[in-house]
Design brief:
By secondary structure, the protein is an alpha/beta fold. It contains 13 helices and 22 strands.
């Protein structure tokens, strides 16, 4: 497909990198020539210098023949105008990043009136991700599939856990049946099989329906932790959305924000939230506000370094759950290595949402991609497909299909039934199929079956 990306920042560059590897014709538009030069030298993309809201620039980039235009500049208004102009010129599908909460209530009107097919709000999506982590504080990451009916949970295996030091196929039958999808040991990431032995310290991803996954962690003794109070450092958009989302979760919330005007706005808009004006990196302030007694510390300032240092301090003080926001994607592994387990990146969340939409439009005759989620620094992808009538792999036992190396059929959803598949299970038309594979290995469902 012909894809135009307006905005060559971190999100734009990440999207261009992923999409160019999938053989799309990608054109980057940006005012910064230096950023364009870096992209065109390192990626297989074209670069056009100019304002993406300018019709002449869009025509030079080929917007009149574009299959998809993605506007991810730092300005919401520019992104909206880009989509409006591109649609008028003939672009088939447009995606805009819109972040300001003031636009949230009028999103439907904006989409209809300005020709925006998909709106991505990275801060709200990040807030949703954080709220799931607060629900399961023992988890490092949680992702939902099949309209929330299936969850994949990442956790750190500990000495004494009933699943460690035993081959997966030999685990006791009384352990609730989940699928062990991915294991990361040190810097090695692999998809386990029945002979795999989980070791203490491994990062393990398991998947199952909501009831089974809850029973699994109850058996593991990990569901006894409950977050009753949380402190947020930074009163930006994520803090605002998160406060709204967790309002009904019974969590007592405090927000520490440096700017007085932001504090006043948050106090006015958020009921039952304690807003504290001060520097969230000041240890004396944190101690005076009883940070050590909090169930969770969520670092959401605009500086990665401040978030990391404060998060490490919170972990040292014994805070049960520490969540850190980062902007630089290459910081994520560094933070985890330093002991900060839960790391949230709005930029990576944005890229995941947009990639899912782009791939869904390149549907094949045998399947439709519904969702794609990158885990473990982008090394592994979890893809959700819908199998279509007539596909050659339907109604064939999985043991008789030639499944591509490094691909795991993780979960099948058939009507109201959730299936953790074995060799004698099969895929039927209309099934939701969740696959785990190496990044960019699977684009369509038939890629998994040779």
């Amino acid at each position: 497909m012909n894809i135009i990306i307006v905005g060559d920042g971190k999100v734009g560059y990440t999207l261009a990198e992923y999409l160019s590897k999938e053989d799309h014709d990608v054109t980057l538009v940006d005012r910064n020539q230096q950023a364009l030069d870096k992209a065109t030298e390192t990626l297989d993309v074209m670069g056009v210098k100019g304002n993406g809201a300018n019709v002449r620039t869009l025509l030079e980039a080929g917007a009149d023949e574009a299959d998809i235009l993605i506007a991810v500049t730092t300005h919401d208004e520019t992104n909206m105008v880009c989509c409006l102009a591109a649609k008028q010129l003939g672009a088939k599908y447009t995606i805009a990043r819109i972040r300001d909460p003031e636009y949230t209530e009028s999103i439907s009107l904006l989409q209809n009136g300005m020709g925006i097919d998909l709106v991505v709000n990275p801060e709200r999506a990040s807030a949703m991700e954080i709220s799931r982590l607060l629900r399961f504080p023992f988890a490092t990451n949680i992702e939902a599939f099949a309209h929330g009916r299936v969850e994949m949970v990442e956790f750190k295996a500990m000495e004494g856990d009933p699943i460690v030091n035993t081959p997966i196929r030999s685990l006791p039958g009384r352990i609730p049946r989940v699928l062990y999808c991915v294991v990361q040991r040190d810097h090695d990431t692999f998809i386990p099989n029945g002979d795999t032995i989980i070791r203490p310290g491994d990062r393990v991803h398991v998947a199952a329906d909501l009831i089974t996954i809850t029973q699994f962690f109850k058996y593991m003794g990990k569901n006894t932790q409950k977050v009753r109070s949380a402190m947020l450092l930074g009163g930006g958009h994520i803090a605002f959305y998160l406060a709204r989302i967790i309002a009904g979760m019974g969590i007592k919330l405090s927000i520490v924000e440096l700017k007085p005007e932001t504090c006043a706005m948050l106090s006015e808009m958020l009921d039952e939230v304690t807003v504290i004006q001060g520097d969230g990196t000041d240890q004396e302030l944190l101690d005076s506000e009883n940070m050590r007694e909090m169930g969770a510390l969520i670092c959401l300032t605009g500086r990665d370094e401040e978030n990391l240092i404060t998060g490490l301090y919170g972990a040292k003080c014994g805070v049960g759950k520490v969540i850190v926001k980062v902007n630089r994607l290459n910081y994520m592994d560094v933070m985890r290595d330093m002991g900060t387990d839960s790391v949230v990146s709005p930029k990576l969340t944005t890229a995941n949402l947009i990639l899912r939409s782009v791939r869904a439009r390149s549907r094949s005759q045998d399947s439709v991609l519904e969702k794609v989620y990158r885990i473990l620094g982008g090394e592994v992808e979890v893809c959700e497909f819908t199998a279509l009538e007539g596909a050659p792999f339907l109604n064939v036992p999985l043991s008789q299909l030639s499944i591509a190396p490094g691909v795991l059929v993780a979960v099948l959803v058939r009507g109201k039934k959730i299936i953790i598949p074995f060799g004698n299970d099969h895929i039927e038309s209309g099934d939701t199929v969740i696959l785990v594979s190496r990044a960019s290995k699977i684009v369509t469902l038939e890629d998994a079956f040779r």
